[in-house]
Give the backbone structure.
Amino acid sequence: MDKKIFYNSEDINIDYSQLGNPGKEPFTRGIYSNMYSGKSFTMRQLTGFGSPEDTNKRMKYMLENGATGLSILFDFPTIQMYDSDNAISLGHVGFSGVCVDSIEDMHTLFKDININKISISIVTHYPSNTAILFSMFLAMAEERGISWSDLRGSVQNDIIMEEVVRCGSEFITPINCFRLQCDNVEFIRNELPKWNPVTLNGYNLRECGTSIITETAVAIINGIDTIQELVNRGYEANNIASRIAFFWSIGNNFFEEIARLRASRRIWCNVLKDRFKISDIKSLMLRCHSQTSGISLTRQEPLNNIIRASYQALAAVLGGTQSLHVDSFDEAYSVPTEEAALVSLRTQQIIQDETNIIDIADPLGGSWYIESLTNGIEEKIYKEIFELGGFDNLVNLISSGKLHDKIHNYAYQQQKEIEEGIIPVIGVNKYQNNNVTEIPQFKYPENVEKIQKEKLLLLKKNRNNNKVKESLNDLENVCKEKVNIIPYVINCAKARCTEGEMFNSFKKAFGLWDK
């Protein structure tokens, strides 16, 4: 964004009633009156690699070292909804995430972890994947005797992730994908009062190649259209909005990132009040998880990534995030080593416990520059929402290819400017150093794919295959009706249907999108 050399009071066109105090509408200055002095941000590092047993050990390691939440990352086949024995999965099982094929793997993944005592983010990405993996999680909890009402956490469940950002080979149509997103929201709001049923994912859209403005605008459009669909189904907007969450990417432009968090809260509050006449103060709060920018990490001089992620994390905290993940310096290479993951966790703990930054709510509030920047970003986000077609247009925005084109053009221009040195990247196109920095490399566990295939063989041999067939047929049939499908997916999970089998039912019922 354009900026001046210095700012003064003439640059702020806002009265204090529009700004408000922390904890007061429109929440520009934060959603709680005492912010982190009353409720610290959740330190939630992404964890996932190898087998369920491997990731279970890493989760326990992070909890033992002070993590206050869990965030589970799945491997490529699991995310794309293919079983580990599918030909597409060959060579990918357990890489860049944990492999989960059935409820049995979900039991192993959370073995000896009190899932009703800690907040858990299940990084399901897609509505289809959310319906399947979260149903496995719920069936697992039920078999452990844990009430769903005691569970706290979030799923992503975002149509943008499935239909725009995803690099899969088979896509259901956008209209059916949005239906699944709303089915997930409906079921979770009815059955899990402490769970966030959707995390509107600006992060991965930005990582794919959009501006901070497009990232924010698309997530807000998604949120409003989701609430509207649930209102059309007979639910109160207050009830649905109270558990919607957002997921932001935090990049290198320090002050811009802080201002965006402030502006997005104000926009969300004002749009909800204007459109849905929401009055419940908790339902007007934009709650968000933030993650430092993965796309900013470099393979050259990887230790520089510690510095990048630290400043990005600081911006997220100064901007008022509720939850935070700090990327590890070696993620440009692979899954983080234990050492790198611990440095990322310690980064959050140092910000929280040593800097005294969390003692003050919105410490940058009132800065001429910050307030002017917040206003400018707010204006640009509103303009972007209008240019993208406004609200009630999400499915068309996706199916028309307009959003795909916008991503392509922006990503191309950004990469061109990096290659030309217009955007400086230290150690890459500026202050280059030909010396190679040697860092410890993460070593993936061996034979994960072989072991996982053996588990699947045993599962299919020992389960009641008549019950499997019956539950999958029921799921396929209900997908063609106007009823919530999630109870039927849970029945499939209990019957020991695999993820790939359930996804096949979706594909048969909905057909595939010819993009």
The chain has a mean pLDDT of 94.
